[in-house]
Structure formats: structure tokens, C-alpha cells
Specification:
Strand order of the largest sheet: 6-5-7-8-4-9-10-11-12
Number of helices: 11
CATH class of the largest domain: Alpha Beta
Largest sheet: 9 strands, mixed
CATH topology of the largest domain: Rossmann fold
Number of domains: 3
Bound molecules: thymidine-5'-diphosphate, magnesium ion
Strand content: 25-35%
Structural class: alpha/beta
Shape: globular
CATH architecture of the largest domain: 3-Layer(aba) Sandwich
CATH superfamily of the largest domain: P-loop containing nucleotide triphosphate hydrolases
Radius of gyration: 26 Å
Distance between the termini: 85 Å
């Protein structure tokens, strides 16, 4: 038999698809300039007739369905995003920009968990001395945690097999290296192979493996998509520019709901959880200005109050701009069309900018009405009442559609001192809310009619 040759392939760093030839655009995910060359090891020739090999096949009914108990972390906000704690034998990828606080958060988690369990923290980025100094400064319990400064995957794996820790943190996946693979650390091939290697190990040994990845929102080197299909849970730690608050969001979770939001603050004694996120995201300045409105969005299992701001200004040059930060661009364009068609208000010669304050990203339609009213408020230079809260989804015929959890949203707003609300008719409260006047409206024109009476 001829000796199998090492071949070259081109792998997309965004989606992991591979191609025999280089091309400027990935044929699978259409991203540009993401293909890079990798060496593919010899592949075993395909065989047929494995008569002697036994696969482990069971009747579906015989499969053990009892879930292993989850391991709670010291942070309720983290547990919420994980869907109720760490699942033994699962792999969690924690992504985020460098400096977001991944190492700090995980060191806090590990030192606490190590009081009662076997926990290994592997750092390939910092020295052990740096790690110990940080733990000391944060006054974390230091006795129980095993630490290693190691980047060789095989060495780490043999330690895990021998010592069987319950939880292993690998900080970061970009510096790990499988010696059997001829590719530099951080390259698509290395990241993909080491992640796959530790995923198999996690399943075999029932260990929780937490991979840290420097992943920017744009994807960056060896983007999350390369790993997404093998890991169980992918959480992103976001650090909005200039803010000390950090949001942790579940982007994929085999063991719980996605889109749960956890909120932390980076303080001088490490990461602290924020128990009442509405209070921080809704810190508004002293003076009221046009273009600002409060809404209550739904994040996973709880309401969150946020401020939406808009700025409408005459087109400076060229085409009118429509920019939405933290909100869906296309919805903004759609709303402007609805405004034109159903209310006769045209913004064709205006630039429109919208932003969710505090770096929150809203991924549901409940913010539609707030977005539109913020835009109108800026356009007409009219200040909206500070104690007004609105929510609701806008349909293409100008109707206001109800959103899920309307009652809880209203209660959260009332709790934070809002006195009046404009909401979809079907979301109006069944019983009177103390201290709050709620207008239930069927469509956008009715909402504008109520606003004109303020
Ligand atoms: P780090 O956890 O190292 O980030 P990552 O691992 O995601 O790259 O956090 C680094 C940043 O956090 C750094 O800018 C300093 C800041 N920091 C604090 O503000 N307070 C603290 O107690 C610690 C440990 C870090
Ligand atoms: Mg780090």
C-alpha cells in the first residue's frame, strides 16, 4: 500500500469548512479572506467489512436518562447563563475580548469550587506567580486549587486522566498545542484539534472542561464557529467600551436556554455580580433630552429596563444613514417605512442613528415601539416624559403586536418608579397596577395620539 501523504487544505476561520483550493470567499459561509492553509494528516483508507468490531448499541428505552447533578458556581449570574450550573462531562467555551475579565472571573470561580472539589486551572498566558498574586490581591481562598502553567495538550490530558479533577479551566485555547499536530498554536487547525481532543476527554472522564477563547465580536482568529459544533455551551463575556459592567450571554447551550443574560461589574476586588441590572442600565442623566425613551426588554428569563436613544439629523452627504447599535438595522429601516406609510411622516432626507445605552444588545422585537418613538422624539425635538415606559412589536400594517411576559415587564417598570406606559392592547394589565397608568393601544397611530396629549 502506498504511504499516505500529508495533504494541504484551506480552512475557513469563521465556519471551519475546508476546501482543496484557496479562494477569496468561503464557499460555505460567504465570508471574505477567511481561508488559511493547513496541513491535513494522513487519513486512513476507508475499510468495509468490520465484522469483528462491536459498536455499543442499546435499545433507546435502556439508555440512562438520569441527569448528573449540576455543579453550582459561586455566581448566580453565571449559573443562570449556564442553565443552572456546570454539567459534568460538558465543554464550555467562554469567549470575550482580551481584558474582558475571563481569567479573573474563572479564577474566582475555581478557587471557591476547589474548597470542595478537585479543580485544575491551566494557564498558558500568565505565569503561576502572576496568577497567585492576583488571587492574593482578590483575597481568594488559595489552598485547594491546582494550577499549572502548561500549553501542551497531551501533558494536560495525562494529568486529567491520572488525577481526575472535576473541573478543568484551560486559559486559553489559543495557546494550547497538540504536539502531534504540525501547526502553530492559535491556528485554525490547532484550535480545532485541541478543542476536539479535550471534548472527547471531557466525555470520557466526566470532567467539566472550560475553554477560554479570545474571541472578538467580529469572530477574529479561529472564530467561535470553528468550535461551535463540538462544544456544549458557548458563553460570551462582553465588555462595552468605557464601561465597568460586563455582560455574559449564552450563545449556544445544549443544557439550557440561550440568550440568558448575566451582568457583572469589574471592580478593584474582581468581578461582582449585579443583582439588579435594570437599575444600572437605566441610569439616566439629570437633564432630559429629545430622542430618549425607556423600554423594558426580556432577557432569557427576566425583564431588563434599558434606555434607547436616537438622533435624527439632516443628511450630511450622500445617502441617508440608518445606523442602529445594539438593535437590528433592518428593523429600523422597516419601522421608518411603516412611519411613512401609516403615519405620513417621512425621514427620507434625514440620517437616523439609534443606540441602546450601556452596550446592551436587544435581540427581541419588544423594543420596536421604543425605537420608533425615540426616533420621532428626536425628529420633532420633543422630550418624552421621563416616567414613561413603552414596549411592543410593530407590524408592517402599523399594528402594535403583543409581546411575551407583558405583565412581568410592567411590574418591573412599576417597581422602578415608572408612572405611565404605552403597550400593545393585549398586554394591558388585567388588574390595575398601583402607581402606574397603562395605555393599551392597537396600533402606532393610537400610540402617537396618546403621546400628543402628554
Ligand atoms: P482579565 O481577567 O485578565 O481579562 P481576560 O482574561 O478576559 O483577558 O482582566 C483584565 C482586566 O481587568 C485588566 O484590564 C485589569 C482589570 N481588573 C480589574 O479591574 N480588577 C481586578 O480585580 C482585576 C483582577 C482585573
Ligand atoms: Mg486572561
Amino acid at each position: 500500500m502506498a504511504k499516505a501523504k500529508v495533504k494541504t487544505a484551506y480552512v475557513c476561520s469563521d465556519c471551519g469548512a475546508d476546501f482543496a483550493k484557496w479562494q477569496g470567499q468561503c464557499g460555505a459561509c460567504q465570508a471574505w479572506n477567511t481561508l488559511s492553509r493547513v496541513s491535513v494528516g494522513p487519513i486512513k483508507e476507508a475499510h468495509i467489512g468490520f465484522a469483528g468490531t462491536k459498536a455499543q448499541i442499546k435499545k433507546l428505552g435502556d439508555v440512562e436518562t438520569q441527569e448528573a447533578p449540576r455543579i453550582p458556581t459561586p455566581f448566580a449570574e453565571l449559573d443562570r447563563v449556564l442553565g443552572g450550573g456546570l454539567v459534568p462531562g460538558s465543554v464550555v467555551l467562554m469567549g470575550g475580548d482580551p481584558g474582558a475579565g475571563k481569567s479573573t472571573l474563572l479564577l474566582q470561580v475555581c478557587t471557591q469550587l476547589a474548597k470542595e472539589r478537585g479543580v485544575l486551572y491551566v494557564t498558558g498566558e500568565e505565569s503561576l506567580q502572576q496568577l497567585a498574586m492576583r488571587a492574593q490581591r482578590l483575597e481568594l481562598p488559595m489552598d485547594g486549587l491546582d494550577v499549572a502553567a502548561e500549553t501542551r495538550a497531551e501533558v494536560i490530558a495525562s494529568h486529567i486522566e491520572l488525577n481526575r479533577p472535576e473541573i478543568v479551566v484551560l486559559d486559553s485555547v489559543q495557546v494550547l498545542q497538540m504536539e502531534s499536530i504540525d501547526s502553530t498554536p492559535g491556528s485554525v487547525t490547532q484550535v480545532r484539534e485541541t478543542a476536539g481532543f479535550f471534548t472527547r476527554l471531557a466525555k470520557q472522564t466526566d470532567t467539566v472542561v472550560i475553554l477560554v477563547g479570545h474571541i472578538t465580536k467580529e469572530g477574529g482568529l479561529a472564530g467561535p464557529k470553528v468550535l461551535e459544533h463540538m462544544i456544549d455551551t458557548f458563553v460570551m463575556l462582553d465588555s462595552p467600551a468605557g464601561s465597568r459592567y460586563r455582560t455574559l450571554r449564552g450563545n449556544k447551550n445544549r443544557f439550557g436556554a440561550v440568550n440568558e443574560l448575566g451582568v457583572f461589574a469589574m471592580t478593584d476586588v474582581g468581578m461582582k455580580e449585579v443583582a439588579n441590572p435594570s437599575a444600572i442600565f437605566l441610569q439616566r442623566g439629570e437633564t432630559d433630552s429629545p430622542g430618549s425613551i425607556a423600554t423594558v426588554t426580556w432577557e432569557g428569563t427576566r425583564p431588563l429596563l434599558v434606555e434607547i436613544q436616537a438622533l435624527v439629523d439632516e443628511v450630511a452627504a450622500g445617502y441617508p444613514k440608518r445606523v442602529a447599535v445594539g438593535l437590528d438595522h433592518q428593523r429600523l429601516a422597516m419601522h421608518l417605512a411603516v412611519l411613512h406609510r401609516h403615519c405620513g411622516i417621512t425621514l427620507g432626507d434625514q440620517d437616523v442613528f439609534a443606540n441602546v445605552v450601556g452596550g446592551v444588545r436587544i435581540q427581541e422585537t419588544g423594543a420596536d415601539l421604543a425605537l420608533l418613538l425615540a426616533v420621532l422624539s428626536s425628529f420633532r425635538d420633543r422630550i418624552l416624559p421621563r416616567d414613561l415606559i413603552v414596549f411592543g412589536e410593530l407590524g408592517l400594517t402599523g399594528e402594535l403586536r403583543p409581546v411575551a411576559n407583558g405583565q412581568e415587564r410592567l411590574r418591573e417598570a412599576a417597581k422602578h418608579g415608572f408612572k405611565q406606559a404605552i403597550v400593545p392592547y393585549a398586554n394591558r394589565p388585567k388588574y390595575k397596577l398601583p402607581g402606574m397608568r397603562v395605555h393599551g393601544v392597537q396600533n402606532l397611530s393610537a400610540a402617537l395620539e396618546i403621546l400628543s396629549q402628554f
